[in-house]
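question for whoever is on the cluster today: can someone run the full assembly for these? two chains, 614 residues total. i dont have access anymore since they changed the login thing
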Amino acid sequence: MRDMERKGPIVEIRNISKSYRRDSQNIPVLEDITFDIGEGEFLALMGPSGSGKSTLLNLIAGLDRPDSGTIRVGGVDIASLSESGLARWRASHVGFIFQFYNLVPVLTAFENVELPLLLSGLSRRDRREHVDMALGLVNLSDRMDHYPSQLSGGQQQRVAIARAVVTDPAILVADEPTGDLDRVSAEDVLGLMDRLNRELGKTIILVTHDPLAAGRARMTRHLVKGVLT
Amino acid sequence: MFILKLVLRNTFRHTLRTSLTILSIIIALVAFGLLRTVINSWYAGVDASSASRLVTRNAISLMFPLPLSYRDKIRAVDGVKTVSYGNWFGGIYKDRKNFFANFAVDPKTYFQLNNEFMLTPEEHDAFIRDRKGFVAGRKLAKKFGWKIGDSVPLEGTIFPGSWEFVLRGIYKGKEKNTDESLFFFHWEYLNETLRKTMPLRADKVGFYMVGVKDPARAVDVTVAIDRIFKNSLAETLTETEKAFQLSFISMSEAVIIAIRLVSLVVIIIIMAVAANTMAMTVRERTREYAVFKTLGFGAFRITAMIFGESLLITMTGCVLGIVLTYPAAGAFGRALGDYFPIFVVDNNIFTVYVGASLLVGVTAAVLPAWKAIRITIAEGLRRIE
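^ ran it for u. tokens below:
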């Protein structure tokens, strides 16, 4: 466990813009965004639907590329990486938590958590150790052989969190992680994320509509029509 | 290893859909196998024909007979070893449904020349001695439960009247493709009766079967035989037994081409069924593939998952298709044995099964895999299952 300490920015965003084409129309989503996220930060990005929150999150996590501007994460200009380079970078530096958990239904909780480690070159024994630790962290050691359909929504999201942290990434990105959960399960998940930030020093970027979820973050930024306020 | 596990579990994720797809592949492959076996059975006579035998018939048509007097002239041709002869009788046993080929033949020379019909010396002697005797193939005798000494009547069609025969021998086929459903009786019995009832049709044969000393000289012998009867009232057409059999098949060429086309259409149908299954599967899992990509899985692994699943489905269908082809062909052969006496599955057909299944598996996966790779992660994650 590490105590949270404030360091320099882990994410440096400079003048990024992003637009989508729909039929023949160009729809701007983000316009000239510039900001930093400090290492160990817990940032909530809020805004109405269509404001560009998820797009910004995807750009930071290397799931999409900006039309212009630069994004440096941990000193790496991720927009300049090749597709395969970006995939490798994501696998080792970013953990993902989605609104609908996105677990693979034909794999058990253990196998779902093991997925990102399959690309790491770790031995089977080492992978097992990591998975046991990650599932222990989310209090689901006793459910490791269960399939997603045998778990509640809250439990599935905790498995997804275990999958996100199993490679020990520096950054966790969460897109509406409580959007599909009841209040109790949502509190549970948010408490877990808080622990990951405070105790393990993970940088967390959380996209949410929910003011209560955003209240768990130590910093909140608002996006309105593609502009950061 | 992980990809294999995932492929296996994904394949049976929708058990009903996968089972129905596999079932359609099995049905299509078995249908393909049966159609090809039908074609092979058509050619069974050609495959069984001997290079050292020639057939001489009337040059106008097989419908027209040749004089018996040609026998000695043919025998005198240089290179000829044996001459036999016969008539297609076209008799019916009890009912038209009980169809089998029956011939009036010269008992001494016919079995000497056609040694693929194996009779014991005792049976052959008994057949020669009894002018009303007949010899049946093992399959035919078994079908009607005939035993040596049984009297069997045939109702003549080409040669009208009721004809009585006594079973004197049951031949066995020397080769796998030897027809064991034929019926042979004395040509003399037929001829004697014709002399009394229809004298104009007596002393005429439907065909001569000629054994040559050297198969390499067969063509020379055919030319020599036909030259003798040139400009006669009954000119001859002599050809190798194989060419004779092929001329029969050519009459059904349109049907054979149609069957070949249908068997190819069957392959195209299973391609469409498998492609539809894979397209549905990939469309449903677009978000899942996006998650795999998010976690760092590259195009190669995603492609392997899709191709693996497609190939597992088609190859499962292929293996079960191979296993089920034998009993299906057995049942088909039993049901239509009268029309296809030699209905044997050629094992080479399974090479076609495997090739077609691989082709279908790969083709069905190409477009879905291309789509899965091409879609961006952000776009894939937005898809609702």
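summary bc i know u wont read the tokens: The mean pLDDT of chain B is 91. The interface with chain A takes residues 2, 6, 9-10, 13, 287-288, 291-298, 376-378, 381 of chain B (CB under 8 Å).
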